Amino acid sequence: MTEPLRVLKYSSAEEKRELANRMMRQRVAHAPRELLFGSTTAEVAAIPESHYRLDLHPAYLNLLARMEELEPPDIGGVPYFRLHQGLVRDTTRIGEREYISFSNYNYLGLSGHPALKAAVADAIDRYGTSVSASRIVGGERPIHLELEGALAELLGAQACLAFVSGHGTNVTTIAHLFGPKDLILHDKLGHNSIQMGALLSGARRIAFRHNDWQMVDDLLQRHRRHYERVVMILEGVYSMDGDFPDLPRFVELRERHKVFLMVDEAHSLGVLGARGRGIREHFGLSGDDVDIWMGTLSKSLASCGGYIAGCRELILNLKFNAPGFVFSVGLSPANAAAALAALQVMGAEPERVAELRQRGGLFLQLARERGFPTGSSKGVSVVPLIVGDTKRCVALTNALFQRGIDVQPILYPGVRERAVRLRFFINGTHTEDQIRRTIGIVDEEWRRVCGDSG
Q1: What is the SS3 assignment for 224?
Q2: Which of 29, 41, 285, 415 would you call most buried, defined as having the most Cβ atoms within 10 angstroms of its Cβ?
Q3: Do residues 101 and 330 make contact, with C-beta atoms less than 8 angstroms apart?
Q4: CATH code, domain with 223
Q5: CA dihedral defined by 154, 156, 158, 161, rounded to 10 degrees?
Q6: Quick one: pLDDT at residue 261?
Q7: Among candidate residues 348, 373, 407, the one where a domain is terminated
């Protein structure tokens, strides 16, 4: 045993250097052998191949095993990464055939809209195809500020900040704002980006039962006093289930327990509310009832990227400190212009939101009339048909594809095995005839593949 080092006040530089040297000698004396001398040739030779070969990576081998399960002829093969030949809205072209498409979230049908294409062309002419640097280094473009101002106004927030990635927006914001002394409560069905941000933050994480505000209330009563900052993270519309939380209940918990509330509106902006202003408009809430509004530009806004909206202090903090913003290139002029134009069209044509809601409601009604298990879907934009068996789910997907319907399966680990499903994204450009025809075909193929109607 070495003598513990005592904390002394040294008056000379020589004495300070001697103390530093003593500390270094003690660290070296107790360091593991491999840190001092490195690995021997024999030790290197004994390293398993799986530790340095990417083709033996466990995740890759697991993927191969799952894909092999989907290859038998009665299933039809892996249905992912099909090559689409052009614009995808209510229909899509794959190969030489046109399909009714339920595999995209172009909810308001604005991707390819003339106003968006014109805005993108003008932005490229004016600013080029890239801003070519992070905004903190390369400076702002007016199109960034116009988009952020329009989003802040739409959400009833003081300010907004746009990011280049929707997934990255959640990861960098959550990881930056919360840390080891904090608590993150998130819905158990929350998006991967929420869970990854929480994991990266180092905060304690508790997943609560889906949409269960009473469980959250109980958790806060038991745990709030043990942490500095606490945040509840919800989604406006859950992309796997097509339902949404009772947001006013969570707002009341926010005020009573003095915690933060964050809402991910990736799938609710442009979908909920009479004018598509999201879950806030749906429930008649104020913008400042929620501390952190998050959303993406890739669904109803027909672009790519994400945003955070809230108070000015929040946005200034993120603008100078969030790694996913500071160390990333700024949003491209084309993506900023497309999202801004989409906001303008949505505001000028609120009937698009009404048409989406009508089409989604019709799909859900017809599916339930046929006895299909649709879970907790509200029919506003996403309707799952829960199959509960991977092989049957993929076989059903491929059977529908042969009948001219493009819809993707959601399999484990995206959902539990007993909850695997076909996920139908509805958009406002689907016609009633397309929806009725689709439900009829699904009914026929479900009976053939799964044995009954629900």
Answers
A1: helix
A2: 415
A3: no
A4: 3.40.640.10
A5: -40
A6: 98
A7: 348
pLDDT of residue 181: 98
Give the type of residue at 98.
Answer: E
Q: What share of residues in the chain are helix, strand, coil (percent, to 5)?
A: 50, 15, 40
pLDDT at residue number 35? 56
Q: Which residues, given as ranges, of the chain have pLDDT below 50?
A: 1-10, 453-454
Residue with the two structure tokens 């879950």 = 279
pLDDT for res 139: 87
- The region, left, alpha or beta by phi > 0 then psi within -120 to 50, assigned to residue 128 is left
- DSSP class of 84: B
Q: List helix spans (H) across 9-113.
A: 13-29, 33-37, 41-45, 58-69
Task: Tell me what pLDDT residue 31 has.
Answer: 58
Q: DSSP state, 277?
A: -
pTM for this predicted structure: 0.89
Backbone angles phi, psi at 216, to 5 degrees: -65, -40
Supply 314's token pair. Answer: 């929040």
Say whether 255 sits in a helix, a strand or coil: helix
CA distance 219 to 298: 34
- Considering only CA atoms, which of 104, 106, 108, 116 is closest in space to residue 340? 116
Specify whether 342 is located in the same domain as 400: no
Domain count, the chain: 2
Among 293, 317, 348, residue at a domain's last position: 348
Which range marks the domain in which residue 414 is found? Answer: 76-105+351-450
Give the model's pLDDT for residue 26.
65
